[in-house]
Design goal:
Elements lengths: L13 H6 L5 E4 H6 L3 H6 L3 H5 L5 E4 L3 H5 L4 E3 L4 E4 L6 E4 L1 H11 L3 E3 L11 H21 L7 E6 L5 H12 L5 E4 L8 H11 L9 E3 L5 H9 L4 E2 L3 H7 L2 E4 L2 E4 L19 H5 L2 H9 L3 H27 L3 H4 L1 H4 L8
Parallel strand pairs: 1-2, 2-6, 6-7, 7-8, 8-9, 9-10
Antiparallel strand pairs: 3-4, 4-5, 11-12
Helix pairs in contact: 6-7, 7-8, 8-9, 9-10, 11-14, 13-14
């Protein structure tokens, strides 16, 4: 799911984004609350009409900013008080307010307000954050005014402590929510720990409901998470790399500033059907990157989003054909000859 924090996937128009065939696009509650404000989005007819996106949308709750704005916030049982990085004003974000903002924004999937603890953190702090996240979820469920139109997902926390993850997942599963997310990963811990967390947590969430791993979007991490039963992912990687002159090509990251691309007149990926690969050469993209032309960032972001969408689509097709572990063995770190 491409990330469109401020109701835009950076450098891409909705039409360009649509050509990559993503199933969901994300936006962020906290940032849209700061600018332009949920009242303006609501008056425009909701996020879809405001940004011209016809497909499904998901809004994060603002809970991640509890982690990322650690120097600007104070956590209490009632909620979180932020100091706005824009104007210094204090903003109180409670579970109820997060849901009210998301109800006004009008996304199809909305997230419960949670406390995302940092890595590393001691067990006492992680346990307190996990318990508070559950209590906040109950408040979110009670505050939700549009349950028939917006699917509210709960978020499993627990840090790197697998017993806390398991108990949190089991507690959420008992609530019979529309969908479930695994949060608090990709916040600084090594990939090995992410894999352990997902492997222990995902199977405990209802198989018939969507399972969403938040903030993860690399090839290996997605493939391994899918093997554990995860269905949904989001990450800023494809557009962030594009804005830095890098392309994702079949599992590799290419820096288009490298001299080897200056006279390379092949497409980025001859097998890719995206607009970039069908019309432009590596040499041209290298030229645009070297000249810092804005078009470079659009063309690379377009390809990168398409690449990750294609990667997950191919995994889905391989699962339906019972070829997943053989076709994606390199990403699952299993021998190609394995009979699993």
């Amino acid at each position: 799911m491409p990330v469109g924090t401020l109701a835009t996937v950076k450098t891409l128009t909705p039409a360009q984004l649509e050509s990559t065939n993503p199933q969901v696009v994300l936006a962020n509650t906290y940032h849209l609350h700061l600018q332009p404000g949920e009242a303006i989005v609501s008056k425009a007819g909701g996020l879809h009409r405001f940004m011209g996106w016809k497909g499904p949308m998901l809004t994060d709750s603002g809970g991640f900013q509890v982690f990322s704005l650690s120097q600007l916030r104070t956590i209490a049982e009632a909620g979180v008080t932020f100091r706005s990085p824009r104007d210094g004003l204090l903003i109180e974000m409670t579970p109820e307010r997060s849901i009210a903002i998301q109800n006004a924004l009008g996304a199809d999937i909305i997230m419960a307000f949670d406390e995302c603890p940092p890595y590393p953190a001691d067990r006492t702090a992680i346990e307190a954050a996990t318990d508070r996240t559950y209590r906040w979820l109950i408040r979110c469920l009670n505050a939700h005014q549009r349950p028939e139109e917006q699917a509210l997902f709960g978020i499993v926390q627990g840090g790197v402590y697998l017993d806390l993850r398991r108990s949190a997942a089991q507690a959420l599963a008992e609530l019979d929510l529309v969908g479930y997310a695994i949060g608090g990963v990709s916040v600084g811990e090594p990939p090995e720990l992410i894999h352990q967390i997902v492997e222990a947590t995902a199977p405990l969430l209802p198989e018939s409901k969507p399972r969403y791993l938040m903030g993860v979007g690399t090839y290996r991490e997605m493939a391994k998470a899918i093997a554990s039963g995860v269905d949904m992912f989001d990450c800023v990687i494809p557009t962030r790399l594009g804005r830095h002159g890098a392309a994702l090509v079949r599992g590799e990251r290419w820096n288009l500033k490298n001299a080897k691309f200056r006279e390379d007149f092949q497409p980025l990926d001859p097998t890719c059907l995206c607009y970039t690969c069908q019309n432009f050469s590596r040499a041209y993209l290298s030229h645009l990157v070297r000249c810092k032309e804005v078009l470079a960032y659009t063309l690379l972001s377009l390809h990168n989003v398409n690449e990750l969408v294609r990667f997950t689509r191919e995994i889905r097709e391989s699962i339906l054909s019972d070829r997943f572990t053989s076709d994606f063995a390199q990403w699952l770190d299993i021998p190609v000859s394995s009979d699993r």
